[in-house]
Structures are given as C-alpha cells and as structure tokens.
Amino acid sequence: MLLISAPSGAGKTTVSQGLMTANPRIGRIITCASRAPRPGEVHGVDYYFFSRSEFEARIAAGDFLEYANVYGDWKGILKESVQAHWATGKDALLSVDVQGAETVRRVVASDPALVGRLVTVFITPPSRKELESRLRGRDADAPEAIARRLDMAEPEVARWAEFDYLLVSRSREEDLRSLQSIYEAEYARASRQTFHWGHGELAPVANHKF
Questions:
Q1: Is residue 166 within 8 Å of residue 178, measured between CB atoms?
Q2: What is the separation of C-alpha 135 from the centre of its chain, rounded to a whole number of angstroms?
Q3: What is the pLDDT of residues 61-70, one digit of tens each?
Q4: Could you say which of 3.90.1070.10, 3.30.930.10, 3.30.365.10, 3.40.50.300 is the CATH number of the domain covering 2-183?
Q5: Number of C-alpha atoms within 13 angstroms, CB side, residue 26?
Q6: Of all helices (H) and strands (E), which one includes residue 106?
Q7: Whole-angstrom Cα distance, residue 58 to residue 7?
Q8: CB neighbours of 70 closer than 8 A, spacing ≥ 6?
Q9: Share of the chain above pLDDT 70, in %
Q10: Which residues on adjacent β-strands are paired with residue 206?
C-alpha cells in the first residue's frame, strides 16, 4: 500500500491522480460511507454506501483498515478492498489524513497479512505562507475556513517524521517526479523481489505487491 498524507490544500489529490495515470498498476481504493448517495454518485464507483448500522457492524468485526466519523457520517477503507487490488496484481493507493495514517500503521503492524506492505509519504508545502497562498488560490473556501485549515495544518506538519518519506511540494510536475521516484525505488527493494538465475542472467520471478 502506498499511503499519501498531507495538509488540506497541499496537493495530495492532484499528485495521487497523476501517479495513478502514469502507472496503471496502481489502483485507487474506494472509500466506504455511511450516508445515502448524492445525485450522480454510484455505489462501487464513487463510494461503497452502507447504512450506519451496517457500517458500525463492520467496525465491530474489525473489517476496516481505517475509519473515522466525519461531520456525523462514518467513512473508512475496508481491508478487503486492498486485498482485492493485490489479487488482481495491482498496488493500492490510499489518500488519508495524518490521523488516518496513524490508524493504518497500527492496523498493519498487528496484521501478519499486511506487515511489510505499507509505504507512507507525507507531502507539505515549504511554508505556512505557501499553503495559505494555495488555499486562497483555490477560491473554494471562506476566509474563516482557510484560517481553520491553516491552524489544523500546524500539528499535522509537525508529525512529518512519522512517515517513510517527506516530499516538500514545489510544483505539480516536480511533486509527481518525486513521487514516481519513491514508487520506483520501493519496487526495486530487494525485500520485495524473488530472483533466480535464468539463462545466465538474474531474472525477477515475482514482485511482492504493496
């Protein structure tokens, strides 16, 4: 699993989409939600929609890799969604907040089927001023909402050292190149490879998905 986290407005959605476009072997994990579909939303495409009781039953069963209550509704990622990607030969990309990343790390560490299959990346602009500029440039939030997002970003950025990689965001192109380099480097790890000698040269016979 490639987990990407960032403060709101840092560009994780854009760079995640760019990475998936450039690498068809990466699949987006569909999030579950305990609300009714909005107009135009499709179950299994935009979200997996559950009733609140169904969602909470799956929490109790330990089915979620990560979940949280967001503005009164549950959202989360099922372990089986990740495993389904692996079964088709794809890597799984998760885009979550810092708290969600902490939950995923804890679940992975306690599940033998997941240990060693998580790579985490934290993306942040170089400064609070730059993040503020990006948030204002989106023209999507009121000044009060921007101030709130900036205040939330401070403690999130302070936790950057909890991640495997730190990506200081400069531009979309630079960020995508950096993330692509991280992805390729992780694929080249010896611990993810199985080799045998074939016809006088070293040939990979299996890649361990992540």
A1: no
A2: 21
A3: 999 999 988 7
A4: 3.40.50.300
A5: 20
A6: helix 98-110
A7: 28
A8: none
A9: 90
A10: 194
Tens digit of pLDDT for each residue in 161-198?
A: 999 999 999 999 999 999 999 999 988 887 766 666 66
Compute the distance between CA of residue 44 and CA of residue 49 in angstroms, rounded to an integer: 8
- Segment 23-43 shows an average pLDDT of 89
Locate 67 and state its tokens: 């979940």
SS3 158: coil
Task: Name which of 92, 87, 98, 90 is nearest 77 in CA terms.
Answer: 92
Bridge partners for 68 per DSSP: 75
* Burial class of residue 86 (count of CB atoms within 10 Å of its CB; 0-12, 13-18, 19+): middle
